[in-house]
Each structure stands twice: as structure tokens, then as C-alpha cells.
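Blinded run. Sample ID left blank on purpose so nobody reads anything into the name before looking at the predicted structure. Input follows.
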Amino acid sequence: MRIYITLALIIAASIDLCSCVGLGPGGRIDVEVVKAPNPWTHLDLHNDPDNFQFAVVADRTGGNRPGVFPDAVAKLNMLEPEFVMCVGDLISGYTKDERILNRQWLEFDYEVEQLGMPFFYVPGNHDISNRIQEKKWEERLGRKYYHFVYRNVLFLCLDTEDPPRVQEPDENNKTGPQLSDAQLAYVARAIADNPNARWTFVFMHRPMWMGGVDPEVLANWSQVERLLEGRNYTVFAGHTHDYINYERQGQKYYVLATTGGGSNLAGIDYGQFDHVVWVTMKDEGPKVVNLLLDGIVGPDVIDEATLWQLGKLRDSIGLTLAPVLTEGERFLEGTTTVAVSNTSDTTFEALFRLDPNDKLQPTPAAKKLTLSPASEDTFAVHIQGVGRPRSSDIEPLVGKLELTFSLPDKYKVYHYDLPVRLAVGQMAKAPRRIQPVTIDGRLDEWRDLPFRCDKPRQIQFEPNEWQGPDDSTFAFAVAHDTQYLYLAVDATDDALLTERTEYPWLRDSLEIRVDARADTADRAAIGGLDEFHSYLVILVPPGDTT
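Blinded prediction complete.
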């Protein structure tokens, strides 16, 4: 005898009845079942109507990398969550120019409108950094904080820039996050109006509970935590671009990485990756997984202590390469000294690699190292010119220092690559001027500007965006007399950005770095401390004692 099962109904039937295979009405499965065996584990469908799935996207801006967010949108459409949440930083912002803001919002709106499901906005500091941006948000989107209920689950969307306290850089204003008294009162009402919600989700941009925040900020956030006491909840935030999972008050708090925002993309071990979050709401609580744009990882990728430990280890490695300079027009050969140091109490295995190019051949091109705790390894690399190339035609040699190490309490090997870049070329000298230079912005008295940036290989960041010399280029010359160092620069740009209300790094600008140290190896440090904090030079004319 054969047995036919329709889920929720068990019907004994004779062998003469027809078998049905496929999805039955109402989400039931109609399938022929024999006594044994059957090619499935069981027929208890995982389709509780109270369960639902939604997605969360992380920061899109704060160093937006074009193409990443649209790729995430396309993949969300394939996954088909019921709706999509966010944690803010949707546009670049940090401007009071309404034309720029309108353009940025139109660009984002176009991208998010490709979603086939609802998208719920949450503001970040890039979205609301001043009163004009706040007004623009209200004009386009209305409320800055709000809530909704879906299948007896409460969703709270907060505004951590309430009011915006990131102002012009010369204004004496606090820049930390804040929830206004009005917003806190709103949160209290929303929670009180939904006393029987089976779960509560909180979406916000800045993680106001993180270690190191202003005590005033933490006290402000603690008022929300007190309102949430006695209920099950989960918090999602962004802002740092580093994924961390926390546990506070017995509940899960997640700081997300990026969905196109600025990132070194060091990988899941360092909490730096592009992803969306997939949440399945069940009776026992939410199940959270991270979906990388090329895969899926669990929520406990990295915790706060491990992230701190890895960061300390990363900063413990120092690497210097002395530039290889020649006084002649053509490069024949030279030698650089490589120094690799480890200031930590952990042993690193390292592979130093310097890749040859069509004009330079390094020897050795690769070298294995064992970096013991508190040690330094120094070795020489010979650089041979291929075909006596002109110094002006030589590109820097590039490579990397590949590091592997383990943590005492982790059963895995961590990998980290430190980029290597070696300058090779002709030593440039600043001529001495007999006549003083008039500081008037005119270049009439400069006969030649010998140093030019007008080739693709000289564009270090986003070289594919450069359209040629008419797009942007510059040339400069350096000279000195007994009192001063002079610099003349001629810059060309097809679109000048000179709005004085913008931050300097958002405008067209010229950055000059002067290093007065005699040892060229000191100037070639890679890794360890941030380059902007490595040294301080104070320049004064001779005889000036002020």
C-alpha cells in the first residue's frame, strides 16, 4: 500500500489514486509518500506565517566607492527581502550648497528606487551635518525619526544628529551625536504604545554606546536603553565602517561595516568588508547573517576585544625603504636598505615582495622573514636599471609585505598585507636664487617649472577617472635663497571647486609637505604610525627667535 500526505491532512488512499508532485494550494506540498525510504528528511515546512525576512544596508558614503551600492541593490532584488532598512550615510553631504545636495539626493534616489521592495530611510552625519541639510531632509523625506509595527514587531528609526552639531570647522561646536528631548519623548510614547510587541528593532547611525564616547553622549543613549528595559530588542548602527558585534543589557548590538562607504576592505578578520545584513524574524527572536556581496558570513565575525587586538598588532609593524636616487639623467643601478620592525609580543611570518617592472629589476625580488617579538630585520635590495632608462621615465617599484600571525586565544591564522612602494629616480635639487622672489601669484620670474604631473602613472588615487592634462595637471619648481624656500605651482583644472564654506579637502587645493630630516630612510616609513603624525617641522627664517 502507498500513503498520500497533504500537509496538515493525512489521507489513506488506494494504489489507484493519482500521485501529485509539486506545490499545493496554500503553500502545502502534495507528494507521493511510500512507506520507506523517501528522498527527503521530513515534510514539516519552514513557513510559519509570522516569520518574515528583511535586509539592512550599511554606510554608502564617507568615501563612496561608485558601483558598490548599486551592486548591493541588484543582489537584494535577487534575494527579495520583504523590505530594506538602513543605518544612514546615504549621501556625501557636508555642504550647504543646495545644488550639490539636490544632485547627491537625486543620485541616491535613483539607485534606491531600483529596489523592488520598500526602503526605510535613517539619517547619518553625512546626510544631516548642518541646518540646511536638515531642512533638505525634511523637504524631501519628512520625519527624521519615526516608528512602525509589522507582524507585532516594533521598528524604531532614530536620528543621532538631532540637532546636527557638525558645523563649519572654524565654529566652536561639539561634533558628537545627540538625541533631542523631543525625540526621546517620542521614543517613550512609541514603546509605551506597543507594550506587547514580541521584539523591538532600533536603527540608528552613530553607535552612541561605544567605548571612548563623550559621557554626555552615553548618558543621552542610556535613556533609550532604560526605556527598552524588560523587552527583547536588537540594535543596528553604522558610522565606523568596521563591523563589530556587542552584547549590552543582555541584547545584541551590531555596528555594520560598509555597503560602498570608504574601507580598506581588509577582510572579515578585521571587520572591513562590503555587505548587507539578512534578518529572519522568528518567534524565538531574530536570526542575523551577513551577506557579503560574494558570499555569506555569520554575525559574530569579530568582537570588540579582537578588533582592538588586531589593530594593535597591525600598528606594531614598521617598514622603511630608503629611496634610490641618482644624480645622472639615466639610471644604472643602486641599492636600498629595507628595515622591518616588530614592536609587539607576537611572532610574525613575513614575505617581502618587490615586483620588477620594464625598467627596473630588484634583487632579491622576494625575501622570507621571521619577525620575533620586539625585533628588527634589515637587508639590502639591489636595483638594476634595464637598458639605462631615463630617470624621468621610471615608475616606482611596488610590492607588498605579506604578514601571517596567530592570536593566543584564536585557532586560526590571520593575514595582513602592507603595501610597498619604492621611489627610484633622479635626485632633484633646488637652485639658489640671487634675486628674491616676489610673492604675488605670478610666474613671470620663473623661467621653467621642471616638475610636471601630467601622466597616468603619476595619478595615485582613482587614475581611471583622470581624462588627461585638460582634466587636471600641475607643474612646479622649487628654489631657495639665504632666508626662504620658494615654491611655484602652475595648476590646470577643467572644473574649479573654490567654495570657501566647504572643508578644504572638499575643494581644489594644494598640499605641501616639508621634511627637514637628513636621513632619507626616515622619510620612507610605511605602516606603523599614521604618516600625518610621524613628524613635526617648524620653519622659521634664520635669526628669528620668536
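Unblinding after everyone has recorded impressions. The domain at 52-302 is CATH 3.60.21.10 (Purple Acid Phosphatase; chain A, domain 2).
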